[in-house]
Structure formats: structure tokens, C-alpha cells
Specification:
Layout lengths: L3 H6 L6 H24 L6 H14 L3 E9 L17 E10 L2 E10 L5 H18 L8 H13 L7 E7 L32 E10 L3 E11 L4 E4 L6 E3 L3
Parallel strand pairs: 3-8
Antiparallel strand pairs: 1-2, 2-3, 4-5, 5-6, 6-7
Helix pairs in contact: 2-3, 4-5
Length: about 240
């Protein structure tokens, strides 16, 4: 018999000391991302911004894993010489490793004050996230969270180009509990109908690929508790401003 899933489930529930490492990793990542956004200015290239994030994370004691970055209307998250321009959005998605445990979060920036459309678009993403959060607690099935989030997503004006996803994380960025199937990575959502348990750590993310305003996303890391959840690295969830 294939015992892979049974063995993977052994690390789904984290010990208190593991939770503390994941919390610190997440906090250091968000601190690094906010510092990077605040330092970026008009003309800063994606390569320069990613390098700044690498230094920010390393200086805080993290092992830099990756950075996926978009600027403007582009949905391409690879490093390039594309430069940030006034009025454009920035999405910064990064994983950083602390003592073997990885944080994985995404935050948004804008060069200049966000206009009303940008405020509304991020509010749509936030509404989906908050709906998912409200369903998270020990004993609840992850499928309930997924169904509630997708119901709000489908009623969103931006539903045609918005996606919801959630996954377990800890030693790697996709591990047990496995909550959604082949979406977008190749594993089955075997744990979706099983009850969430206190000590599980999950990533909740909503991604909007807006055809004109670009890549708008929030990704958050939460630990399941008996009464609900504890969010790790929860700063900077609105529009963060680049350097003037």
C-alpha cells in the first residue's frame, strides 16, 4: 500500500514550538515585504525590488526562498527589467524559511495613492478572504470554508478573472492538510472533507488577474485553533505605498 499520505498527515498538526517558528517566519516576511515596497520608487525594476526583498529577509535572519513579483497590468511574476511606474500596482509574494519552517504570504503596493477602483478591487479580494476565515476552526471541514469563499467569489463583479485557493503548509509551502485538488499544483484534496484540527497551519489566498489593473492578491497564513484561528504576519493587508 502507498503510505505517502498517512506519513504526510503526521506533520499536519504542528507542536507549539513549530507554530512559533511559522509565526515568526510569517512576521519577518511581511516586515520585509513592507520595507521593500516602501523603498521602491518610480523606475525601480523588478530585479532591483526582488534583490531588495532578498536582503531584507536575509538581514532579519530568514533564508530567502523565492519572490514572485508583478508590476502594472502585467500578470508575469518573473524577474525582469520592467520598471514600476506612477499609479501602477505591485504584488509581492514571497516565501522565507526560519529554522526549517516556511512562511508564504502576498501583499500589495501602489505607486501613489490608490484610486477608487483599486480600493474596490482589493475590497473584493478581502471579502473572499474574510468569508473563508470565518469558517476556520477545529472540527469544521475545510470544504465548508471553500464553499463559502467560492460562493462570495461567484457573486463578485470580478468573478471571471478571480480564483480562490487554500493549502496546508509548514516545512514546505504545500503539505498536509491537502484541501483542494490539482489547483494549481498536482495533488488531490484528500483532506477537504476531514475536520480541521487545532495546530494545523493553512494558507488562504485569493488571486485576481484584472485585465487592466494587473495582479491583485492577498495570501495569508493561519493556524487553526479550537475557537477559530490565529493569523500569522497579518500586517500590510491593505494598499502599501511606494516611495514618493
Amino acid at each position: 500500500m502507498d503510505a505517502t499520505h498517512a506519513l504526510e498527515r503526521l506533520r499536519a498538526i504542528k507542536r507549539p514550538e513549530e507554530l512559533q517558528k511559522l509565526k515568526l517566519a510569517s512576521e519577518l516576511i511581511t516586515d520585509s515585504m513592507l520595507a521593500t515596497i516602501a523603498a521602491a520608487r518610480e523606475g525601480s525594476t523588478k530585479i532591483e525590488i526582488i534583490e531588495r526583498l532578498r536582503r531584507e529577509e536575509t538581514n532579519r535572519g530568514l533564508h530567502f526562498e523565492y519572490c514572485l513579483l508583478t508590476l502594472g497590468a502585467s500578470h508575469n511574476r518573473a524577474a525582469s527589467l520592467q520598471a514600476w511606474e506612477k499609479g501602477e500596482v505591485l504584488s509581492i509574494d514571497s516565501g522565507g524559511n526560519h529554522c526549517g519552517y516556511i512562511g508564504d504570504l502576498c501583499r500589495m503596493g501602489v505607486l501613489g495613492d490608490p484610486d477608487a477602483e483599486l480600493e474596490d478591487l482589493l475590497a473584493e479580494v478581502e471579502s473572499i478572504q474574510q468569508t473563508a476565515f470565518a469558517k476556520i476552526k477545529a472540527g469544521a471541514a475545510a470544504s465548508e470554508m471553500i464553499a463559502a469563499a467560492e460562493e462570495v467569489l461567484q457573486s463578485s463583479p470580478s468573478a471571471a478573472f478571480t480564483d480562490f485557493f487554500c493549502h496546508g503548509m509548514g516545512l514546505i509551502s504545500h503539505e498536509a492538510p491537502f484541501l483542494m485538488t490539482n489547483h494549481p499544483v498536482a495533488y488531490e484534496g484528500k483532506d477537504a472533507d476531514q475536520p480541521l484540527e487545532a495546530g494545523m497551519v493553512i494558507s488562504v489566498e485569493t488571486t485576481m488577474l484584472h485585465p487592466k489593473r494587473g495582479f491583485i492578491k492577498l495570501e495569508d497564513t493561519l493556524a487553526v485553533t479550537n475557537g477559530g484561528y490565529e493569523m500569522f504576519g497579518n500586517s500590510g493587508r491593505g494598499w502599501n505605498l511606494g516611495a514618493a
